[in-house]
Amino acid sequence: xxxxxxxxxxxxxxxxxxxxxxxxxxxxxxxxxxxxxxxxxxxxxxxxxxxxxxxxxxxxxxxxxxxxxxxxxxxxxxxxxxxxxxxxxxxxxxxxxxxxxxxxxxxxxxxxxxxxxxxxxxxxxxxxxxxxxxxxxxxxxxxxxxxxxxxxxxxxxxxxxxxxxxxxxxxxxxxxxxxxxxxxxxxxxxxxxxxxxxxxxxxxxxxxxxxxxxxxxxxxxxxxxxxxxxxxxxxxxxxxxxxxxxxxxxxxxxxxxxxxxxxxxxxxxxxxxxxxxxxxxxxxxxxxxxxxxxxxxxxxxxxxxxxxxxxxxxxxxxxxxxxxxxxxxxxxxxxxxxxxxxxxxxxxxxxxxxxxxxxxxxxxxxxxxxxxxxxxxxxxxxxxxxxxxxxxxxxxxxxxxxxxxxxxxxxxxxxxxxxxxxxxxxxxxxxxxxxxxxxxxxxxxxxxxxxxxxxxxxxxxxxxxxxxxxxxxxxxxxxxxxxxxxxxxxxxxxxxxxxxxxxxxxxxxxxxxxxxxxxxxxxxxxxxxxxxxxxxxxxxxxxxxxxxxxxxxxxxxxx
Length: 559
Prior knowledge:
Blueprint: E1 2-10, E2 13-19, E3 23-28, H1 35-45, E4 61-69, H2 74-82, E5 90-98, E6 103-107, E7 110-112, H3 114-124, E8 125-129, H4 132-135, H5 139-150, H6 153-178, H7 180-200, H8 206-218, H9 220-236, H10 241-253, H11 263-289, H12 294-314, H13 321-335, H14 342-384, E9 391-398, E10 410-417, E11 425-426, H15 427-430, H16 433-449, E12 455-459, H17 467-482, E13 485-489, H18 493-496, E14 501-510, E15 513-520, H19 523-535, H20 541-556
Parallel strand pairs: 3-13, 3-14, 8-12, 12-13
Antiparallel strand pairs: 1-2, 1-4, 4-5, 5-6, 6-7, 9-10, 10-11, 14-15
Helix pairs in contact: 5-14, 6-14, 7-13, 8-12, 9-11, 10-11, 14-16, 16-17, 19-20
């Protein structure tokens, strides 16, 4: 419930601070006084569109604060908790608009995107304006109102989501069928390429190992020759390294006396003789055991040739072949029995259609049941609004092509028949401006009775209504206020006389500047305002007496 509204430097209002209570609150005043300031400010606090012209002339920015008691609005509390913006049982929405047109939004003092302000605002307040008469002529408005009345908004959203998924799959399948020839050609090529790579069966690191082996096998003769020669030079004849070292040792061993300075040299020569002998033995064993394998060399070279040829064919390096093999195999699996196959897409599409049909059938059943009750309730309200012969029909018809649609399996349209015996026709073709205004009010009153939104705002929805019907309008609005909170801008004294709280809007000029003032009226002030609404500027005693009688009757009627 709205408990306070503070407006600073908005339009012609320098500062307005209003307290609200439960029940019906009427806003009245002369044309141009600024009655729309309150409702426009509330609209901005709910996330409505802002422009620089809204800022009071000479001010840097406009500031709007709307405080709500959400202790009895569990949906709003849950929303705030989910977004970590909760602050006990109160909720403050704030909107600032700079003179350059930029604006900021806040929830409980925390900056937030405008979309969040709109989302939360929709849980706190519902604004009905006279401009909705035009939207009442559109079928999408009829569908929205019926779904709200039926409590089927969530089911309608589920059906819409199911349709989107089904439609996206249908388009994907159609595209795949359209490209069937290209897809088949690609499929055949992939099969051939993957089969080739399967036969090649190249493993990671295999090519590098083969190249090393090839290098060794191709130089086998040179390795054997050099190893044999090295063995001869080490130990095989009198000029070998072993023989020469042995001769050097003999010369030193035959010295006539020991020379300590040559002791290390003798040790090194002995060690060299041993190492040379071992090296020669190793070389002989290597030469004896080493086998040149021309057949293995041919095999390795053939394998490498196949690898190089496959790489050239795909215009990549041999090292990239394993990754290519994996990628082409994955694409083949997708086209040939994987997620994207025609058969699987067709099966998926059929399953998605069944899911949509189930949701759409549930939605249709809810709509049909709610349509009958909605028609009956609106008929009762129209009778109270002096339109007893007006027949109201919520017409549900199957989609013209019997295909799924985002909104379900039927079109919804409000039809009316102004006179008995005449067929019901669309609102735009039957209802006059005044009739449309009353029909709109009847619809809004009925829908509001089932609404969970605690605060309802009606902006001059009683335009074109007068006489005894205006008194009925007042009773309808007040009855809504008895169960919650209703704010209405009205020009009808019969409506204003029945409200719980009366706000009077006026404007004045001071130092060549225009200001708007909004004040809560006491009983005497309310009588005076009703008199003004009855008789204009010059109020006679008769007018005042009539206003007092209307006020007393309006308040007494509801006790």
